[in-house]
C-alpha cells in the first residue's frame, strides 16, 4: 500500500494511475478543490503546514497503520504506547512544540490512535485546580513523562451525576493526611483512559470529609503505581476494564482504593483548602475551571468527531462512483451506484452535514474567546450561554455524526461491513462520543433549561443572550414561499427553522407551566415534559447550525464558484432537515401541504446538482490515504485490488488454524473412499 | 436477586409465563424449548471461555469445535425437528454465526432442490454425513445485488465433457461466502454458462475446492479468508479465485436446466419456484429482527431498573433511570416494536408453510404478492431493529459501550442483515414495484386482493386527486382498529403520490428506468408506509387471540404505543394527507407519554417474558439477577490486558522513555 500513496504525489490526479471512474468525476468539478481545501483549513498557510506534517509522519514506517485492523486488544494498546512515545521523539527532532500548530496535524495524520490523551486532562486539571506550588511540583514531572497521569472521576455506578460519586477522602488532623477509600463496589473508579495499564498517578475525585462532615467533591493527586517497577501501590487495585466496541488502544481502567493515605498537600487547593487544624476554606470562583472543561468538550468535536464524519463521507462517496451495479438504462453498462437517487439521498445530505458542522468551528470559537476574555475580568455573565450552546451542539453533532457514519457504512453494502473499509472503525469510535463528555440526552436537557429561562426573560422583557435572541423576533405567521424555487432562499428556510424552534420551545414551556399550575411539583412537571424539551433543544440547535451555514455562505462572497457550491450544500442541509421532519413544520400550519411538496421537489433537485461535484467536495477534505486507512476510500479508487491484497495479509490466512486438524478432518475422512 | 429487579417483578400486573407461551406458540412448546436448552446448558462439553477475550482465529476455532460437537450431540439425542435444532444451536452459539451454517442451509437446500435424482444420490449422502462441507458462492467482489452482472464463467468443453471455471477479473473473485475461507471443501458456484459459443446466463455448479484428506486447496483454486469485519469474527467469510479449473459435466446442477454431452443447452421451466426459498429466508430475518431487538431491550430495560442516577426530586435518593421519561421514551417504543415484529415473523412463517402447500399442488398465484411483501418486511424490520439495538446500547450510557454489555455483539452480528439476502433499499423498491403494479391495475378498473386491497378504495378518484385528503377525520386514537385505518390511508396516499410522480416523470419523456430512478425516494417511502401498515395490522389482529385478560390489557397498551409512536414519528405524512388534525397530533403526543407511564410497572415482566437464558443473552448488564457491578468487576479481571500485573509495554516503551527525557 505504501508505494501508492505518499502524500504529495496525488494532489493532481492526471499524473497518477487513477481509476477512470474516479478520475472522470474530478475533471468536471465546478470549483477549485485546492481553494476550498484552503478555506476549510483556515488559509493556504495552514494547508501547507498540514501537508508538510503529514509528509513527515507518513514517510516514517514507525507510524504505519498498516496492521491496525488485524491487531488484538493487547497489540493495539502496545502500538498506541509505542507510537505516542515515538511521536514525542519525532516532535523533538523536528522542533515541533506541544503548543505549536503541528501537533493537531500529527493527530489528524495518525487517526487519533495514540495513548496518553488523558495524561493531558490530568495536567490541565492540575493547572486549573492546583495552587502555584502544586503546579510547580507536578507539571514539570508530567511534561517530561516522568509520571503519567489519569483523571479518575466516573465510577462504576455513577457517571453524569457528580454529587452521587461515592469515593471518600477523610481528613485526619493527627497525621495531617487524607485517607482515600472505595467504600463499595459501585464506587470503584471505572472508565478513565490510561488508567488500566499506563498511569503512575491519578487525579481522583472524592467526597471530602472533615470531622464527620461532608464538604462535597474535591480533587486529590495520588500515586497508584511504583516508579521503579510499575507495580500497583499498596492498597491500590488497578486494571483494565476489558474489551470495548472500539478504543481498544486505550487502557480504560478501574481503580479501587483501600485506606490510601496521602499528605494534606495533595488536595488540589486553588479554590478550596483544608488547613492543618481541619478548617475548610473556600476562595475565589472555580468557574474558570468550568470554562476549561467546556473547551475540552468542544475541542473533541473538531479534532476527533467531525473529521470522522468527513472521512466516512470520503470513503462512501469515492466507493459509490467506483462501484457499479445494475443498469439505469437498458444497453448501458452497469451504473455507478452514486447515480441512483436512493444512494444520493443517503450520502449527499451527510456531505452537507459534514460541511455544516465543520463551519460551526469558527462560530463556537468566537463565543469562547469572548467568554474567556470576560471571565478573565471576573465577569461570568456569558457562562450559562456558553454552557448551553456547547452542550446542545455537542449532543447534536455527535448524534448526527454517529448516525451518519453508520449510514455510510451501510451505503457501501457488504464491503462496508469489512473492517478493511475503515468504516466499522470510524463508526464504533464515533458511537462512544454520544455518551462520553456528557450523555447526549442529559446535555439536550441542559440546553433546554437555559432556553426555558430565556423564554421567561422574553416574557418579562429582560435582555437575553445572543444565541437565543431570535426568540424575541415577531412571529411571521405563515411561510412565504410560492414556488419550489423560493425554498432555495435562505431567508425562507431560515425563517422556517426559526419558527419551528420557537414553536416547539413555546409548547414545551407552556406545558411545563400548566403542569406546575395544576399542582405538580416542579421536578415532576419537568420530568413529564422532558421528551418535549429535548425536541425543543434539538430544534434550537438545528436552527443555530442552519443559521450559521447561511452566514458562512454570505461570507464567501469573494469566492464566486465556491460560494455557489457551498450555497447548494447549505440549501441541501436545510431542506433535508425539513424533509426529514415534515410533521414539525406542518404542525400548526406554518408550512402547508402544497409547500411541503415544493420542499420535496427542491430537495430532490439539489441531490442531482450536488451529485456532479460530490467527489471534488470530498477531495477538498484532503485526507491522505494513510489517515483514511480504507481499502474502499483511497484517492486512486483501486478498490478491488486493494481489498484483495489487504485480505491476504489477514492473520487468518497466515496462521495455521488447529480447527482443521482437530475438528474438520475427522468429519471429512469417511469421504475419501466415496468420492 | 437485586432488590430493584425483585420489586419490579413483584409488581407486574400479569403473569409473564402466559406471555412466554404465546410467543412460543403454546405451553407445550415452551416446555420442550426449555428441555432442549437444558441439554446444552447442563453439558460441560459446551462450556467455553468468554469469547470477548479471544482472538479471531481462536473464536473461529471454538466455533468449529462447537459445530462438530453439535452434529454429534444432535444425532445422539435424535433431535431432528427444525425448530428444535434451532433451539439447540441457539443455546450453543448465542447469536453468533456458525462457519458450517451455510452448509446446513444454502448448500444442502440447493442440492435438494436443484439436483437431478442421480445427482441427489451422489451428493446428498456425503453432505448429510458431513464428509462434504459446502458453501454457496454467489456474490463476487464487484457484484452483489445485480445477479446478471456476475462475471465468473463456466465454459463447456464437449471434447472432455467438462466445464472450465474461470475468474476472469479481480472483480469476479467470489467474495463473502460464509465458511468459504477455511472450512469448506466444496462450493456451489454460480457462474455464467457458456456452451457452443453462447452465454446461457447464470447456473449453479458443484465445485470441489480443497483436497479431501489434506484440506489443501486444489490446483487452480485460490481460496482464503477475507479478513476482519465489523462482527462475525467466528465466520471465515472467504474469497475464491478459479483459474481454468475443470469439473465434470455432471457437476452442473441439472434438475431444471441441462447441458447435454454434446453441449446442447436445455432451458429450465418457471423460475418462480426459487421465490419459495427467498420467502423462507426473509421470514427468518424478520424473526431474527424480533429476537435481536428483544435481547437488546431485555438488557437495556433490566439495566435501567438497576442503575440509579441523579435526582428527580431534590433530597430523594437517586432514582432508577427507568423512571426518567426520556429513558422510557427511548426504550418502550422499542419494546413494543420487538413484540410487533415477533408477531410479523410468526405470521410470515405460517404463511410460508401454507403457501408451500399451494406450490406443491401447482398453485403459484399467491407467490408474487408474498414475494413482494416479504422483501419489504425484511427491509422494514431489519432497518428498525438495527437502529433500535443501537438506541438500547446508547440508553445504557458508557457501560453499553463495553463488550460486557453484550450489546456491541448483538449489533454487529445483526447489522449485516440490512445488506445480505437482498440489500434493504433494493428490497423496498421491489415491494414498490408490486405496489405500483397493483395501483395501475386498480386504475384500470381491476380489483386487487390481499394486503394491498386498500388500493381498491382509490378507484375512480384520479379525477379528484384530493379525495383522500378530504376524508373526514374520524380516527380514534385509543382504538387500535381505527389506527390501522389511519395507517392504511397513509399508505394509500403515499402509494398514490409515488405513482403520480412516476407518471409525471414518464410524461417528461424519461425512459422507464430513468423515471423509476427519479421517483425512487418516493417509492421507498410508499413501501415503508405499506409495511408499517402491515405491521400495525398484524399486531392488532394478534390482540384478539389473547384470552387472558391481564395479558390482553398489557398487550393492548403495547400495541397502542407501537401505532401511536409510529404516528408521532411521521406526523408530517398524517397531517399532509389530512388523516389527522393538528389537535389530534397533539393528542397523539400526549397519549404516547401516558402510555409510557402505563407500561412502566410492567416493563421488566415484559422483557422477562421473552425468556432468554443468561447464557443466550451474553450480557453482564442484562443478567436476570441484576447483580451487575460485582460481575462487571469479575469480568474485567479476565481482560487480556490484565494477564500480568505490569504490562510488557511498560518495560518496552515507557521505562526507556522516562530514562531519555
TrEMBL record, chain A:
GO cellular component, one term: peroxisome
A single MF term (Gene Ontology): acyl-CoA oxidase activity
Polar residues bias: start-end ranges: 1-16
Active site: 437 (proton acceptor)
Keyword check for Oxidoreductase: yes
Boundaries of every Acyl-CoA oxidase C-terminal domain copy: 491-668
Cofactors that this protein relies on: FAD
Localization annotation: Peroxisome
Pfam families in the record: ACOX, ACOX_C_alpha1, Acyl-CoA_ox_N
One of the protein's GO biological processes: fatty acid beta-oxidation using acyl-CoA oxidase
Binding site for FAD: 154, 193
Domain Acyl-CoA oxidase C-alpha1 as annotated: residue spans: 290-452
Domain Acyl-coenzyme A oxidase N-terminal: 32-148
Region (Disordered), start-end ranges: 1-24
Major subcellular site: other
Record's keyword terms, sorted: FAD, Fatty acid metabolism, Flavoprotein, Lipid metabolism, Oxidoreductase, Peroxisome, Phosphoprotein
Family (UniProt): Belongs to the acyl-CoA oxidase family.
Stated name of the protein: Acyl-coenzyme A oxidase
Species annotation: Terrapene triunguis (Three-toed box turtle)
Lineage, opening ranks: Eukaryota, Metazoa, Chordata, Craniata, Vertebrata
Automatic annotation (TrEMBL), chain B:
Cofactor(s) listed: FAD
Domain Acyl-CoA oxidase C-terminal: 479-657
InterPro entries named in the record: ACO (IPR034171), ACOX_C_alpha1 (IPR055060), Acyl-CoA_ox_N (IPR029320), Acyl-CoA_Oxase/DH_mid-dom (IPR006091), Acyl-CoA_Oxase/DH_mid-dom_sf (IPR046373), Acyl-CoA_oxidase (IPR012258), Acyl-CoA_oxidase_C (IPR002655), AcylCo_DH-like_C (IPR036250)
Sorted UniProt keywords: FAD, Fatty acid metabolism, Flavoprotein, Lipid metabolism, Oxidoreductase, Peroxisome, Phosphoprotein
GO cellular component: peroxisome
GO molecular function list: acyl-CoA oxidase activity; FAD binding; fatty acid binding
Binding-site residues, FAD: 139, 178
Residue ranges of domain Acyl-CoA oxidase/dehydrogenase middle in the record: 136-244
Domain of life from the UniProt record: Eukaryota
Name of the protein described by the UniProt record: Acyl-coenzyme A oxidase
Amino acid at each position: 500500500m505504501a508505494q501508492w500513496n505518499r502524500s504529495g504525489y496525488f494532489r493532481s490526479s492526471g499524473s497518477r494511475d487513477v481509476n477512470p471512474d474516479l478520475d472522470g468525476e474530478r475533471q468536471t468539478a465546478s470549483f477549485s478543490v485546492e481553494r476550498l481545501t484552503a478555506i476549510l483549513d483556515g488559509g493556504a498557510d495552514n494547508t501547507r503546514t498540514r501537508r508538510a506534517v503529514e509528509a513527515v509522519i507518513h514517510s516514517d514506517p514507525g507510524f504505519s497503520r498498516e496492521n491496525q485492523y488485524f491487531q488484538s486488544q493487547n497489540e493495539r494498546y502496545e502500538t498506541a504506547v509505542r507510537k505516542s512515545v515515538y511521536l514525542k521523539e519525532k516532535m523533538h527532532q523536528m522542533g515541533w512544540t506541544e503548543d505549536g500548530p503541528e501537533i493537531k496535524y500529527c493527530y489528524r495524520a495518525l487517526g487519533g490512535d495514540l495513548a496518553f490523551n488523558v495524561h493531558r486532562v490530568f495536567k490541565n486539571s492540575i493547572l486549573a485546580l492546583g495552587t502555584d506550588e502544586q503546579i510547580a511540583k507536578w507539571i514539570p514531572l508530567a511534561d517530561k513523562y516522568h509520571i503519567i497521569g489519569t483523571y479518575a472521576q466516573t465510577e462504576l455506578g455513577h457517571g453524569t451525576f457528580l454529587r452521587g460519586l461515592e469515593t471518600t477522602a477523610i481528613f485526619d488532623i493527627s497525621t495531617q493526611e487524607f485517607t482515600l477509600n472505595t467504600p463499595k463496589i459501585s464506587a470503584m473508579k471505572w472508565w478513565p483512559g490510561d488508567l488500566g495499564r499506563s498511569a503512575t498517578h491519578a487525579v481522583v475525585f472524592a467526597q471530602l470529609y472533615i470531622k464527620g462532615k461532608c464538604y462535597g467533591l474535591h480533587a486529590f493527586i495520588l500515586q497508584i503505581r511504583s516508579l521503579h517497577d510499575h507495580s500497583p501501590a499498596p492498597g491500590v487495585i488497578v486494571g483494565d476494564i476489558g474489551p470495548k466496541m472500539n478504543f481498544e488502544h486505550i487502557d480504560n481502567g478501574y481503580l479501587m482504593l483501600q485506606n490510601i493515605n496521602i499528605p494534606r498537600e495533595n488536595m488540589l487547593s486553588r479554590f478550596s483548602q483544608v488547613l492543618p487544624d481541619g478548617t475548610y476554606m473556600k476562595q475565589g470562583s472555580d468557574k474558570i475551571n468550568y470554562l476549561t472543561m467546556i473547551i475540552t468538550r468542544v475541542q473533541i468535536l473538531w479534532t476527533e468527531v467531525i473529521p470522522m464524519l468527513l472521512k466516512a463521507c470520503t470513503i462512501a462517496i469515492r466507493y459509490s462512483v467506483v462501484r457499479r451495479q445494475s443498469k439505469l438504462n437498458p444497453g448501458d453498462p452497469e451504473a455507478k451506484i452514486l447515480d441512483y437517487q436512493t444512494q444520493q439521498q443517503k450520502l449527499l445530505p451527510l456531505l452537507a452535514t459534514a460541511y455544516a458542522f465543520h463551519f460551526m468551528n469558527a462560530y463556537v470559537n468566537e463565543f469562547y474567546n469572548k467568554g474567556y476574555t470576560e471571565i478573565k475580568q471576573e465577569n461570568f455573565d456569558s457562562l450559562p450561554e456558553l454552557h448551553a450552546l456547547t452542550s446542545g451542539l455537542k449532543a447534536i453533532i455527535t448524534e448526527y455524526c454517529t448516525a451518519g457514519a453508520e449510514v455510510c457504512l451501510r451505503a457501501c453494502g457488504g464491503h462496508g461491513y469489512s473492517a478493511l473499509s475503515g468504516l466499522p472503525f470510524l463508526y464504533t469510535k464515533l458511537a462512544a462520543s454520544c455518551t462520553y463528555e456528557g450523555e447526549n440526552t442529559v446535555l439536550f436537557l441542559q440546553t433546554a433549561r437555559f432556553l426555558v429561562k430565556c423564554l421567561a426573560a422574553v416574557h418579562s422583557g429582560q435582555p437575553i443572550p445572543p444565541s437565543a435572541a431570535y426568540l424575541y423576533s415577531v412571529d411571521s405567521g405563515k411561510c412565504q414561499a410560492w414556488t419550489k424555487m423560493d425554498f432555495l432562499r435562505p431567508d425562507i428556510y431560515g425563517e422556517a427553522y426559526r419558527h419551528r424552534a420557537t414553536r416547539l420551545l413555546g409548547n414545551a414551556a407552556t406545558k411545563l407551566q400548566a403542569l406546575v399550575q395544576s399542582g405538580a411539583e416542579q421536578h415532576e412537571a419537568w420530568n413529564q415534559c422532558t421528551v418535549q424539551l429535548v425536541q425543543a433543544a434539538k430544534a434550537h440547535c438545528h436552527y443555530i447550525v442552519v443559521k450559521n451555514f447561511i452566514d458562512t455562505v454570505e461570507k464567501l462572497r469573494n469566492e464566486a464558484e465556491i460560494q455557489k457550491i457551498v450555497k447548494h450544500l447549505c440549501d441541501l442541509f436545510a431542506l433535508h432537515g425539513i424533509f426529514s421532519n415534515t410533521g414539525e413544520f406542518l404542525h400548526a400550519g406554518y408550512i402547508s401541504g402544497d409547500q411541503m411538496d415544493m420542499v420535496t421537489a427542491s430537495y430532490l433537485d439539489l441531490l442531482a446538482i450536488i451529485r456532479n461535484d460530490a467527489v471534488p467536495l470530498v477531495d477538498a477534505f484532503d485526507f491522505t490515504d494513510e489517515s483514511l486507512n480504507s481499502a474502499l476510500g483511497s484517492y486512486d479508487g483501486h478498490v478491488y485490488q486493494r481489498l484483495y491484497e489487504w485480505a491476504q495479509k489477514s492473520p487468518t490466512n497466515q496462521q495455521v488454524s488447529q480447527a482443521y486438524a482437530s475438528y474438520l478432518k475427522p468429519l471429512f475422512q469417511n469421504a475419501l473412499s466415496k468420492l | 436477586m437485586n432488590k430493584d429487579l425483585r420489586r419490579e417483578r413483584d409488581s407486574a400486573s400479569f403473569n409473564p409465563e402466559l406471555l412466554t407461551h404465546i410467543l412460543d406458540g403454546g405451553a407445550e412448546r415452551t416446555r420442550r424449548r426449555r428441555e432442549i436448552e437444558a441439554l446444552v446448558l447442563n453439558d460441560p462439553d459446551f462450556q467455553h471461555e468468554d469469547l470477548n477475550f479471544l482472538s479471531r482465529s481462536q473464536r473461529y476455532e471454538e466455533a468449529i469445535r462447537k459445530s462438530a460437537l453439535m452434529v454429534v450431540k444432535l444425532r445422539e439425542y435424535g433431535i431432528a425437528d427444525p425448530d428444535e435444532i434451532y433451539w439447540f444451536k441457539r443455546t450453543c452459539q448465542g447469536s453468533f454465526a456458525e462457519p458450517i451454517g451455510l452448509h446446513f442451509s444454502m448448500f444442502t437446500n440447493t442440492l435438494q432442490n436443484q439436483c437431478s435424482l442421480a445427482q441427489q444420490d451422489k451428493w446428498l449422502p456425503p453432505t448429510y454425513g458431513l464428509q462434504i462441507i459446502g458453501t454457496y458462492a454467489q456474490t463476487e467482489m464487484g457484484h452483489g445485488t445485480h445477479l446478471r452482472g456476475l462475471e465468473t464463467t463456466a465454459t463447456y468443453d464437449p471434447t472432455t465433457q467438462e466445464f472450465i471455471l474461470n475468474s476472469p477479473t479481480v472483480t469476479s473473485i467470489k467474495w463473502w461466502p460464509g465458511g468459504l475461507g477455511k472450512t469448506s471443501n466444496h462450493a456451489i458456484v454460480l457462474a455464467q454458462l457458456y456452451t457452443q459459443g453462447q452465454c446461457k446466463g447464470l447456473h449453479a455448479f458443484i465445485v470441489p475446492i480443497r483436497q479431501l484428506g489434506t484440506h489443501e486447496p486444489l490446483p487452480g483454486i485460490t481460496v482464503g479468508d477475507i479478513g476482519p469485519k465489523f462482527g462475525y469474527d467466528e465466520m471465515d467469510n472467504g474469497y475464491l479465485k478459479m483459474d481454468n479449473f475443470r469439473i465434470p459435466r455432471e457437476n452442473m446442477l441439472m434438475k431444471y436446466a441441462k447441458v447435454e454431452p454434446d453441449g446442447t443447452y436445455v432451458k429450465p421451466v418457471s423460475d418462480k419456484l426459487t421465490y419459495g426459498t427467498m420467502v423462507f429466508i426473509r421470514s427468518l430475518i424478520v424473526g431474527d429482527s424480533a429476537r435481536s431487538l428483544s435481547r437488546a431491550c431485555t438488557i437495556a430495560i433490566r439495566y435501567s431498573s438497576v442503575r440509579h442516577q441523579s435526582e428527580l426530586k431534590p433530597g430523594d435518593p437517586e432514582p432508577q433511570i427507568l423512571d426518567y421519561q426520556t429513558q422510557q421514551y427511548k426504550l418502550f417504543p422499542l419494546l413494543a416494536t420487538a413484540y410487533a415484529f415477533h408477531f410479523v415473523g410468526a405470521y410470515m412463517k405460517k404463511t410460508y408453510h401454507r403457501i408451500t402447500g399451494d406450490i406443491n399442488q401447482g398453485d403459484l398465484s399467491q407467490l408474487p404478492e408474498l414475494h413482494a411483501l416479504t422483501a419489504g418486511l425484511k427491509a422494514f424490520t431489519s432497518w428498525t431493529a438495527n437502529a433500535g439495538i443501537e438506541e438500547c446500547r446508547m440508553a445504557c450510557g458508557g457501560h453499553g459501550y463495553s463488550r460486557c454489555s453484550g450489546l456491541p455483539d448483538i449489533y454487529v452480528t445483526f447489522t449485516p442483515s440490512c445488506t445480505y439476502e437482498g440489500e434493504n433499499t433494493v428490497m423496498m423498491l421491489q415491494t414498490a414495484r408490486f405496489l405500483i403494479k397493483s395501483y395501475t391495475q386498480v386504475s384500470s378498473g381491476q380489483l386487487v386482493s390481499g394486503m394491498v386491497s386498500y388500493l381498491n378504495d382509490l378507484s375512480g378518484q384520479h379525477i379528484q386527486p384530493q379525495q383522500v385528503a378530504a376524508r373526514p377525520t374520524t380516527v380514534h386514537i385509543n382504538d387500535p382498529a381505527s389506527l390501522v385505518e389511519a395507517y392504511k390511508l397513509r399508505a394509500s396516499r403515499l402509494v398514490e403520490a409515488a405513482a403520480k410522480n412516476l407518471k409525471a416523470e414518464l410524461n417528461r419523456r424519461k425512459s422507464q428506468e430513468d423515471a423509476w430512478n427519479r421517483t425512487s425516494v418516493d417509492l421507498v417511502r410508499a413501501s415503508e408506509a405499506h409495511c408499517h401498515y402491515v405491521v400495525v395490522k398484524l399486531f392488532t389482529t394478534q390482540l384478539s387471540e389473547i384470552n387472558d385478560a391481564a395479558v390482553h390489557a398489557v398487550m393492548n397498551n403495547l400495541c397502542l404505543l407501537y401505532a401511536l409512536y409510529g404516528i408521532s414519528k411521521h406526523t408530517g405524512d398524517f397531517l399532509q394527507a389530512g388523516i389527522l388534525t393538528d389537535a389530534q397530533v397533539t393528542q397523539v403526543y400526549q397519549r404516547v407519554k401516558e402510555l409510557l407511564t402505563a407500561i412502566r410497572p410492567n416493563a421488566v415482566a415484559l422483557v422477562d417474558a421473552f425468556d432468554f437464558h443468561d447464557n443466550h443473552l451474553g450480557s453482564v448488564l442484562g443478567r436476570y439477577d441484576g447483580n451487575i457491578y460485582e460481575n462487571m468487576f469479575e469480568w474485567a479481571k479476565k481482560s487480556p490486558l490484565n494477564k500480568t500485573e505490569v504490562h510488557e509495554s511498560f518495560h518496552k516503551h515507557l521505562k526507556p522513555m522516562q530514562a531519555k527525557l
